[in-house]
Each structure stands twice: as C-alpha cells, then as structure tokens.
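Reply to dn_fold:

You asked what the input looked like. This is it:
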Amino acid sequence: MNPTDSQRLSFSAFIIAFTTGVFAFLAIATVLIVLGVSHMEAYVFSGLGGFTISCFVWIERSLIAQVKEKDRLLSLQMVSNLETQNRLYSRSLACFVRFDAGTLIIDQASPGFIKMLRMPTDSVLRGLRLEEVLGVNPLKLESVVDAIKLGDSSVKQPKVEMKSADGFSTLALISGEYFPQEHIVEAAFFVPPVKNAERVADLEATQKDLDRFRKGMFRRETRILELKEEVNVICREAGMPLRYQIDHSSDDSELKLPVSQYDFSGSRKGAIS
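and this is what came back:
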C-alpha cells in the first residue's frame, strides 16, 4: 500500500467515523430529550456515546485495511514463490518432481529428473502418471507416498527400483515433502554414485542444488504460514471469522543425502540408512 492509498484510506475512514458519530450523537440526544432528560445531561451523554461509536468505527476500518494489506502481501509472496519454484523446476539439474499425492499425476519435473530417466531433454512429463514414467508398481509407489506423508525422520528413507527409458534398472532413494493444503508431494530422487569421477562430481552439484531447493521450499512455507497467522490474528481482533485454516505439520527435517556416504573414488563409507 503506497502513501497515497494510505492517506486516502485514512481520510475515508475519518469521514465514515465522524459521520457515524454525529448521527449517533443526534439520535441519542433526541431519544433522551424525548424521555425527559435535561438538555445538558442529554448532550453530555450523547456526546460520549457518539465519540465512543466513532472510535469503534475508526478501529474497525483500520483493522479491515490491515487485513487487506496482509492479504495483498500474502498474494505477492505466493506469486514470488511460484516464480521461484517454476525457475527451479525449469533449470535445476537435481532430480525434482512435483505430483498429486492422490492420483500420482506429475505436475512439474526438473531437467535433472528427465536426465535421470535418460529421456530426451525436450520431454514433457506434465499430466503423466509417475508410476508409468518410473516403471514401478503403483502399490509400491503409493506406499512410498504414504511414508513421505508421515514425515517421520526415524523411518528409513524410501527407495524404489525404477526403469529408465532405455530399460536400465536403477535403485533410487526418495526424499520428499507433503503439502496437505495443495495435496501435493514435492520429491527428490537420489541415485547412489558409481565409480566414475564425472558422475560423482555431478552428484555433488545435485546435492548442493537439492539442499538450496529444500531450504527455499521450507522458507516459502514458513513465510506463508506467518502471513496467514497474522491475517487470522487481525481477523480475530476485528471480530471477523478466521480467513485461513493453518496446518503446522510441515517441518524442516534434515535430509540424509546418500552421496555423503561415498568418497570421491566411489568407494562406500558406510551403509545407507
């Protein structure tokens, strides 16, 4: 809200509050005089009543303005987050995929995910079912999605044996986040490195990209929840129904990336949990 809009809103709120106060003053004074109260007492009492009503109107107008401003900031934040998300999914070499938690239909997939499946770089996966793209059993994939929904860091990291476009089978670890408000899962796939220096370097870059992506997604959800909470507080103070139902089930669980369990020569350091 720019200064001009703020001044205009303040002026309009003042006019409404002043008009309401004057009307209340005249109405109360008229009723008291008709009831036989002395003019002085009637004017004093009605003046206090009109002033009180004006203050209530002024506060109510101000709270509504704050709610609208918070909604505007929330909308801007969501647009900015969506642009960041689209940029990550259109450029990232990490194996990211975003899909519906119920139908398993893909919404977005990163170039790294397409490369992992050894598909042409111009492949469009939006609208396809994830189990068909990965070549895995639907029941197995649904159990993995259920594990992601639980979000329990003590549970073993889910893994599936997927098939690439050329029929090559690969065991991949999955780490994801479930967003109940959208009923969407954002997942990242990890393929254990082989004894190949170039492959190990690519996987390290993917790990860093994934970490930035995870932190960005968590900051996005945290900021949106904060803005929604502020809007709800203002609505509560204004005596209005809550605008948003907030879910705090998401957390910033630490991702255990499998690449850390291998050295640069490709030899294994320890078992993958």
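Confidence is low (pLDDT under 50) at residues 250-273.
Hope that clears it up.
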